[in-house]
Write a structure and sequence with these properties.
The structure is a single chain. Strand 3, helix 3 and strand 4 form a beta-alpha-beta unit. The strands form two sheets. The protein has a six-stranded parallel beta sheet with strand order 4-3-1-2-9-10. A four-stranded parallel beta sheet has the order 6-5-7-8. Helix 1 packs across helix 10, helix 2 packs across helix 3 and helix 4 packs parallel to helix 6. The chain is of the alpha/beta class.
Amino acid sequence: MLGVFDSGVGGLTVVKELRRLIPQTSIIYVGDTARAPYGGKDEQILFIYGREIIRFLLKKGAKAIVMACGTSSSVSLEPLRKEFPGLPIIDTIRPAVKTTLLLAQQSHDFKPVFAATETTVKSGVFQKLFYEEEKNCKLYVRACPLFAPMVEAGLTKNNPLLNFAAENYFSDLRGKVNALILGCTHYPLLTDALTRTLGEIIFINPATATAEATREILPPPPENSPAIIEYYTSGNPKNFAKIAQFILNEKCTAKKASF
């Protein structure tokens, strides 16, 4: 059983990739929508939230954890690994760095921008890990505090507010970058708006990179074992299920989680 958590619905992009790559793996998902967004919260608060959610997931039978939240991944991974020694915990930042470095090595004209929440950008973790391995490639960085709340509100299509935010964050980079690292798992749902602003560029999806990293460390499930998927939210289950259905393209039922 794999436990997956995020501040809200964004981590469902990771669940979608996990189900594609390791379909026989059972998953328990927690979206902490009552306390979302995480993007502006400090490290100690995010550690407390992560500890509460992981304890909840362990009680539900989880044997490994995916932190499907870029913000939590940027500031809480190491503290949570110390809090739960021996528990496999996979984050979203380091797999995304690995994918970005591979692309940088394969292209002499790789011009990336890293987009994430304020806390993730301020942590500097992605930038540090990238520049430790790549000395010749310039990495642009942008904090996008409005994006995750917009996704939580269901504003993922051609919405004027979303288009305005994308223009505000990225219009000056049009023609200067050709790849965008989606440093928050909500952001893969916004690629239409981002393409309208930046033109046709490469999107580096942390959901795909994280699912691949998870597949590498999980033992193979028993053959013909049915995959069980359970969804929990700290917020309104009906609201969560409505957005989850849009992301996963299937009907979902969510249960109320208390930590």
